[in-house]
Write a structure and sequence with these properties.
Elements (H helix, E strand, L loop, with lengths): L3 H4 L2 H7 L7 H21 L6 H20 L4 H4 L6 H32 L7 H30 L5 H10 L4 H7 L12 H26 L3 E5 L2 E6 L4 E6 L5 H9 L3 E3 L4 E5 L2 H22 L1
Antiparallel strand pairs: 1-2, 2-3, 3-5, 4-5
Helix pairs in contact: 2-3, 2-4, 3-4, 4-6, 7-8, 7-10
């Protein structure tokens, strides 16, 4: 049995098949069945506590697509008579609009599924711990690649012995066998670019670890200004602007210009603490000071 909200779209669904099907009612019923099935799959991929919020939004997006579909027409239904150049152009326009509406629906579904199932961002020592584990994996892989290349270059070992040696250092049998096959450039083992790329990841992870360690070790700060407060929340790795009064559109424009976004949960304009954010925040403070000083005159 269909849910009530889907059944309420019946008139639009039947209208969608008016000019593209010999049996628009049957076509419309098929659309409603598809809508119900798609909605079930979509909601099933979301956490239970947000499903009600996105059910109505899904139906609204689906109705947009069916509305675009209702403006399409088929020559088999309308007949060939009167199909002049202008008619063909209109047909092409409506078909493109329908395809774009369907594309927007599909892309929206994928975005919401990704957003709602995104893992919680780690901060502080928890993020340092995650980066440490990642660093150990990358370092271990670097050593394995170097050791594997040394084994492959050995002239004392047979191919069978080389595979055994590589498996002994922790590589899988499939990877070990693949190392003995030349790539498109005739290279064996792990090419230099693979070692260089992995080394770059190691250095990047080390730099991130140091930055997160510094932040995790610092005390949060609150800086008072004429317009409100700037919170430097090292524990959550966020700069947060809290205004005493609702900011003007000019101020909001400046916040957005410098990469800040409104956080309803924290009732603040915030941005992640990074070297770029530190520079941008310094400039933003100067610009805000100028705006509020001029407004006081």
């Amino acid at each position: 049995m269909r849910r009530q909200k889907v059944e309420e779209c019946k008139e639009l669904a039947h209208k969608a098949g008016q000019w593209i099907s010999f049996d628009p009612d049957r076509y419309g019923e098929g659309l409603l069945d598809s809508m119900e099935a798609e909605l079930e799959v979509f909601l099933g991929k979301l956490p239970e506590d947000v499903r009600d919020d996105y059910e109505d939004k899904f139906i609204a997006k689906y109705k947009e697509w069916m509305g675009a579909l209702s403006r399409c027409f088929s020559q088999a239904i309308t007949g060939a008579g009167g199909w002049k150049t202008a008619t063909f152009r209109r047909h092409e326009k409506t078909m493109n609009a329908e395809r774009n509406a369907r594309k927007r629906l599909d892309e929206w579904k994928e975005k919401i599924i990704r957003r709602c199932n995104r893992q919680e961002r780690l901060t502080g020592w928890a993020e340092v711990e995650r980066l440490q584990a990642k660093l150990e994996e990358l370092t271990d892989m670097q050593e394995k690649m170097k050791a594997a290349n040394k084994i492959i270059r050995s002239k004392k070992l047979s191919e069978v012995e080389k595979v055994d040696e590589m498996m002994a250092i922790g590589l899988s049998e499939a990877t070990s066998l693949q190392c003995l096959e030349p790539d498109f450039a005739g290279r064996y083992g792990f090419p230099q670019y693979a070692l260089s790329n992995n080394l770059a990841k190691i250095k990047d992870t080390e730099a991130k670890m140091k930055r997160h360690e510094r932040m995790a070790s610092q005390e949060d700060e609150i800086h008072r200004h004429s317009w409100g407060e700037l919170h430097v929340d090292y524990s959550d790795e966020r700069y947060r602007f809290l205004f005493d009064d609702k900011p003007s559109q000019e101020v909001i424009g400046k916040m957005k210009e410098h990469g800040y976004k409104w956080s309803p949960a924290n009732k603040a304009w915030q941005r992640q603490i990074t070297p770029n954010a530190a520079y941008s925040t310094k400039k933003l403070l100067e610009e805000l000071e100028q705006i509020f000083t001029e407004n006081e005159k």
